[in-house]
Inverse folding.
């Protein structure tokens, strides 16, 4: 009887742990807020989750594929020592937060100089609002 009880307790513990283990390793879920003009309060909010793909972000399947290929490294800031051309890209702003492949991210995007414009371009698959292209 003691062995059966111990096995039952172990089985219950494994069942309790299994869902947490499945989500801790690689979940992707993002909240994306875009201000077409950061000087105005009007914001557009989107959600994205992967595996299975869903949320309110247009083209969720394509976005999830790009996130799976690039991971959290896509959100890396330019190196501090990198020189950035002084070119203003526009008044847009975006905040992307959540998890990518289980890693927490929080990124603020603007278009105030060449480095920020390039970072915005690299992540534009998460930002469904069109912005003017620079020459």
């Amino acid at each position: 009887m003691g062995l059966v009880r111990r096995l039952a307790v172990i089985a219950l513990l494994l069942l309790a742990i299994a869902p947490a283990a499945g989500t801790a390793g690689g979940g992707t879920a993002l909240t994306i807020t875009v201000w077409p003009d950061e000087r105005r309060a009007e914001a557009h909010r989107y959600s994205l989750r992967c595996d299975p793909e869903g949320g309110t972000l247009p083209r969720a399947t394509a976005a999830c594929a790009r996130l799976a290929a690039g991971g959290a490294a896509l959100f890396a800031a330019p190196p501090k020592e990198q020189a950035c051309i002084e070119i203003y890209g526009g008044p847009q702003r975006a905040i992307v937060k959540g998890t990518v492949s289980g890693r927490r991210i929080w990124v603020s995007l603007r278009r105030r100089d060449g480095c920020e414009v390039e970072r915005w371009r690299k992540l534009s698959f998460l930002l469904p609002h069109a912005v003017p292209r620079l020459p």
